[in-house]
Amino acid sequence: MVKIWDKGSSIDKKIEQFTVGDDFIIDQELVQYDCEASIAHAKMLKKIGILSAIEEKHLIEELQKISQEHKEGKFTISIEDEDCHTAIENRLIMSLGDTGSKIHTGRSRNDQVLVALRLYYKSSLSEISSITNQCIEHLQMFGDKNNFDFPGYTHMQKAMPSNIKIWSNAFADSLVDDLKNLKNAQHIIDQNPLGSGAGYPIPLKIDRELTTSELGFNKIQSNPIYCQISRGKFEALIVDSLSQIMLTLNRLSSDLILFSMPQFGFFMLPEKFCTGSSIMPQKKNPDVLELIRANYHTVNGYGAQVKSLSANLISGYNRDLQLAKKPVINSLNIAKTSLDMMTYIITNLTASKENCLNDLTEDLFATDEVYNLVKEGIPFRDAYRTIAKKLSGK
User: Fold this and answer.
1) Which of 139, 289, 324, 349 sits at a 20 to 30 Å CA gap from 201?
2) Whether residue 331 lies in the annotated active site
3) Closest residue by Cα to residue 274 from 255, 256, 250
4) Which of 9, 10, 155, 278 is catalytic?
């Protein structure tokens, strides 16, 4: 297959396999967005006189056909294609001849890749924002349904009385703040890089306002060099915002694992949510929560990977950044599935009022006793020591 950058000479097969890596597999995620961007680009080329009306029509129809075939699992990308961008252009040329050959006028693969990624990121972050709001809502509903006391802990030791509603709303509040980070990332990446070429001005009067409007971007990313050096930077911002969401889910998972242990019995997972043991028939393992908890560390590691890959690079595109694509896509998919699964768990979680109230032992009210003495006029430190001595039996 002919590559976008092909000048007519062949490339060593071993080199090709190494440089392509698994990009041809990863790029299945981007086919729809590359088609959307190419449709907008075709409309722009028609406006500036590069394409005729009939050429524009044929390109748009073929791109829509490719997008539909992709949704149906019929559009494939081979290692010889290298990536979705080459596969799509080859299909256009095969189907439309010279008309297909015109689609790459006024753009580089650099801005072509960037805009497809940005559209994919925008769509994924919007979906994650929606799922996060659902998780927040179900945590709040769980608290409203189970508004009773249970023991609060510090240092893994009983501390003071707490409340299920306060507990569940704490994680809801955490996700609310996490959404602010996510929305900040959404706002920053909402810039159109299409038309920036390889990072240097293109000798055509390109209408970037048109493609920005067609693709629904908030604004044009006007500096062509910044379009290139923002790759890796924007990805790190995305993964870091996802890492905060995953950290909240990590802590929530730890609480649910601990408090659903038989020794506590505050929460119960449905038996069908638990796995068993190949040797111990009594086991009900909360594997699903353990995996959500572990997913935070995976996403956090991806964040470090993306930041490291984009460091030390000179301005302009460097192939190093190809390796940042997979960790970002994986992070987005992990966040989606983890949020969806946690929402499903919370929806089916049961809290035992009996176990919670029965575990409110006398020592949990020690601080209340201290403040009862304070209300009688005894200085706090004296009251504290009085109750401490009482508890120690001295």
Assistant:
1) 324
2) no
3) 256
4) 155
